[in-house]
Every structure is written in C-alpha cells, then in structure tokens.
Amino acid sequence: MSATNKIRIMLVDDHVLMRMGLVSATRIEPDMTVVCEVEDGKDAIEAYRRHRPDVVIVDLRLPGMDGVEVINALRSQFGNLRILVSAITARGMMWLAPSGPALPVTW
To answer: What pTM, to 2 d.p., does this model score?
Structure first.
C-alpha cells in the first residue's frame, strides 16, 4: 500500500509512554501512520494546521488547554474532524469518538 493511501494520525497526549504505545501499535498496521505527536493543546492546533491528519487522537487531560478545549478549537477552525478521545479513568482506558462539539467532562 502506498504512503498516500495510509490513514494519517496525529497524537495529542502529554504522556510519552502513551504516545510511544500508539506509535508502536500503528507501525504494525500497513494502512496507518503517525504523522505528528504533540504534548499539549496549544501545539495541537498548529500541528493540525501544518500536517492536516485524517484522524486526531486526543487525551482528555492535558496541561493548559484540555482535550475538550482542543476538540472545540480544532472543530471551530477546521470543521468536522475525525477525532478519537482517550482517557484513563479509575475503571481503565476509555475511547470515545465525539461527533459534535465536545462537552465538559466532570471527573
């Protein structure tokens, strides 16, 4: 499969081990590639502008600008994006795919 047919992924997570794990998981998938990784929400906006990935994986808990703010900022600037939200809770790992504006989450 050519590089142009790959799903281009941007990772937004402040935990390096989480990003490393997701990068490793995508390496074994022939149709996926991580095009960029960022540690905070502010950098996510600029990284999206620069790389225009197909999918953005966002951690809900980020320093400064949290995941909800990142999702809303990205959607307000770039339209309806494909976003996958990751969150680690007391119950384990959660994955969400919001279809509209992100709503605040109470922990």
So the answer is: 0.82
